[in-house]
Amino acid sequence: MSRRFIAFATTSLLASGVVVGLGAAPASAAGFRVGATSTAASAGAPSVSSARYPDALTPHGGIALSGDFTMESAAGDAVRYEYHFTGPELGDSQPWFERSPQTPGGPLTIEWTPLFSGVHELTVHSFDADGNQSETAVFKFWVLDTRPTVTSTDYPGIFFHDLKFNVGVPGEFHIDGPAGAERLDWRFEDSEPTGSVVPDADGDADVKITPTEGGYQLLWVRAIKTIDGKERKFPEHAYAFLVDNGPLVSGGVYREMFLGDKVSVHATPRVPGVKEYRYWFGLDGGGITEQVAVPAKSDGSADFVFTVTDPTQRDLYVRTVDADGDLSVARHTSASVSDRPKVVSSEFPEIGTARLIPGTFTFTPREPGVTSYRYTLNGGPAVTVKAKADGTATITVTPSVARTHELVVRSFVGEAGSEETWYVFKVAPAAVKVTAAGPASVTTGGVRTITVKGSNLLRKDVLQVTPAGGKAITATIKSVSADGTTAVADVNLTGAPAGVASVTLRPYGAGQAAVVLAKAFTIVLQAKPVATKRPAISGTVMVGKVVKAVPGTWSPAATGYRYQWAANGVAIKGATGSALTIPASVAGKRLTVTVTATRAGHQPGTAASAATAAVAKAKAPKATKKPKITGTPKVGKKLTANVGTWLPKVDSYRYQWRVNGKVIKGATGRTLKLKSAWRNKKITVTVIAKKAGHVDGKAISASVKIR
């Protein structure tokens, strides 16, 4: 067998956890030299091969896994070889090693152990017996990284953390080991292996690991695999992650702070047995303030207030201390301190677009003793305004151009200026819209409140309501929502006609067109008056008599009345006055009157009286001159009834003849032919006077004797 040589690894292990010392020293110190000299024409480069590390196309072998490398001269005449290795752990300036083959002209096999993964190079040339150097061979090979990698969404490294996970809360870790690994072992820093798992064929495994300490942790993981019949433990790899057991902090701290601010903080523990809290601030330039201790309450929480006094203060840090003195991770809250002035404007908000209108800006100091302010608008000349006694100042600006404007403001205490406040606002004709108005029905007759919906509405807009067929009525806008979508206005609809009304909005500001919403809402009359005491009829209910309507009592009070008289429920034509002379046509019928109460802006109300008793007939006509019988009272002759004279004038007459006081059957005409049976008897006639609506009048003539 040929002798085998093991190359000496010259580079110590870096902070990767790889074990050092797998290489062996050269067989003799005399075998080491730097630089070789060629004295004749070069032969071809030696060939190099390795079973474990065959090429640089794909990774092979593994970190700390030795491999054999065989080199053989092209001419078969080599009596010695010079070679060196380069790679990620070695660098490019490595010493050369000199070895001789066991048999002159034969191959040379060496063993070498890589300490890093990645592409390495073995550089070789040979020498013949005359000292001639061959061409140089560069053999590249790729060392597989056998260190497992670790990922976890539950404990995702040192810069990110999920507050659901804490000390004692198991999290899932994914270990990605080399293919064919038979076992994966893990441990925490400064501890023996605490767990292992059998991976799948690809070397991967998911495990649940429960941290026992807070803060930054190192999880060391290594792969174990049987190679050449021996169990090989590959180098470890560390996964750094944060176990965040710091308290939860709330209050006014995640913001820009200003001198003089009193900031309230509430801290809630995320570990048991908290005795106190400690907080401090970072400072510009990298310093920190002294820590302040705050005792924990019975529930483990704490409340504290601090006043911002130092302009160099920056982030707030809060941690817990338990009964054993163990400190939690410090909770870091982003905050900064500024002395820049506060700038506000109701007309020109920082969010959204303002109209082309005049507006004001108010500057408020955030440092004591401010004497003036200096501002520029859109990079124009600086303008200085004096501060008022309370330290504030107000300016008026009237933008004339639609664009984005930049107002830069500083406050001054004497000549010392604060940080700048940049106030950016946009000005353009607003896209004002009116999309709805309500309520759907609004009663006339007084001041009514309406609500208008839309966009970009302002208090200074002019709102008009136009009733159907009426003139526009200007409303008074009482309020507008902060987002400009709702306006509430009062409008006086006294005397406004009922019907569908439109709304016109005339936006405040230059370049703004009026916006019209047709059919915005319906103006309706108010509720009709209601009779609290029903109408009544007064007077004698008799034909020819006058009866009067008593309208009753109404709420609200009526301002006018209309009437309709009826007999037995049927309207009497033309009977629409408050009084009625009872016509003969309704004799025997019951009268009612319906009163319609009217009031401006209200629907009319109606109520009917109770029915009267049946209309009585008028008194019977009277004969002022009695009826008289004319003609010859002799058998066979005709007698005629003269009706006489009647008051009032009658409509018609009927007759009834009698003989000796007895009714002559069928004798109802004005004339009567005398019969022989009536000789020497007395004849009378009764005249019945008929007049509509009156009792029949009756009168009897004087008697005549029949001859």
Automatic annotation (TrEMBL):
UniProt keyword terms in alphabetical order: Signal
UniProt KW Signal keyword: yes
Signal peptide feature range: 1-29
Lineage, opening ranks: Bacteria, Bacillati, Actinomycetota, Actinomycetes, Micromonosporales
Name under which the protein is recorded: IPT/TIG domain-containing protein
Superkingdom per UniProt: Bacteria
